[in-house]
Write a structure and sequence with these properties.
It contains five helices and 18 strands. By secondary structure, the protein is α+β, with helices and mostly antiparallel strands. The protein has a single domain, classed as Alpha-Beta Complex (phage-related protein like fold), CATH 3.90.1690. The relative contact order is 0.22. Mean pLDDT is 86; it is low at 210-214.
Length: 314
């Protein structure tokens, strides 16, 4: 046979090169690697509030020494007791703008076949990026605590874990809301290896379930000795990058706040979940449309003694 219509040219067939594109985009796609874990819903984290309409970009969270902070003083019968000074303090959390913009040409949008360059895709990305940004802000605070455990350039050990718990207990950090640890993946891996090689069964790890991950976030790995363990690649480095600085803390150590920005009264902006302002910015002369995501966030260290930094090999 000869003169067949074929996809690629052959000695006997005519190729239909002009009737087909060089490559077709699959309906499936691969996400580039990133830490997409959302901020865990945990009692150890304190939400200071929404700064929207408050008159200030800074929210002040008060500290007060009541409910057993001061003991009763031994006082002789008939003798007037002295006044006790009420100890107080505060944590300020300032919210500021975090934003990004994706801009696409008309040609890029109209030739799209798999929905990756579309308002819907960018809106979904905006909410995911909000969660990842807030997680990063919190994770970058766990190296700030004055109390530290671990040894520089040495792997995370079970002893380090026990030392961190003891440090919080000695500091009288309330455990009613639960202790929480945020570790870098390397630290988590070292701790897991230490458990596998040295534990005799007395120390048990409770793995996370699917239901717990939905409630506490994708970074939740389980519970060890009563402490909820979360993993984030946003955990900072220490000692010129040779170590990672995770941390363990109880309620009061880390405080965060946000602010809701109302959508503009037009068709080009949308407030997503009360957290992210998603806007379309059109440049008609250039045939470009930008999709801008904005959020107002802040996180601060609260009571320093409520946390302990864990410095181990990176």
């Amino acid at each position: 046979m000869a003169n067949e219509v074929v996809y690629d040219a052959t000695s006997t067939g005519t190729a239909i090169t002009d009737l087909r594109i060089g490559e077709a985009l699959s309906a499936e796609f691969l996400l580039l690697l990133a830490d997409r874990n959302s901020l865990p819903q945990h009692g150890a984290l304190v939400y200071a509030g929404n700064a929207g309409g408050s008159g200030s970009a800074t929210i002040r969270l008060s500290h007060i020494g009541l409910q057993g902070y001061n003991l009763l003083a031994s006082t002789a019968d008939g003798v007037a007791v002295s006044n006790t000074v009420i100890t107080d303090g505060s944590t300020d959390v300032t919210v500021s703008r975090y934003a990004k913009s994706y801009e696409a040409s008309d040609l890029a949008r109209l030739t799209g076949s798999n929905g990756l360059i579309s308002p819907d895709a960018f809106a979904a990305d905006a909410m995911a990026s909000y969660s990842a940004t807030l997680t990063s802000l919190v994770a970058n605070l766990v190296d700030n605590f004055s109390s530290t455990v671990g040894t520089s350039t040495s792997n995370f050990t079970v002893t380090n874990w026990l030392d961190a718990i003891t440090t919080l207990e000695v500091a009288k950090v309330d455990s009613a809301s639960g202790y929480m640890a945020i570790l870098h993946p390397v630290q988590y891996g070292d701790l897991r290896s230490a458990l596998a090689t040295s534990s005799t069964g007395a120390l048990q790890w409770s793995d996370s379930t699917q239901e717990q991950m939905v409630i506490k976030g994708g970074g939740y790995k389980g519970q060890f000795m009563g402490v909820d363990v979360f993993v984030s690649s946003h955990v900072p480095t220490a000692n010129s990058g040779q170590d990672r600085a995770g941390g363990m803390f109880g309620r009061g150590a880390i405080v965060w706040a946000d602010a809701t920005v109302p959508a503009v009264a037009d068709t080009t902006s949308l407030n997503i979940g009360g957290k992210v302002l998603f806007e379309q910015d059109r440049t008609a002369k250039s045939g470009l449309t930008a999709y801008v995501s904005s959020a107002f966030l802040g996180a601060s260290e609260g009571i320093d003694a409520c946390g302990v930094s864990i410095i181990t090999d990176a």
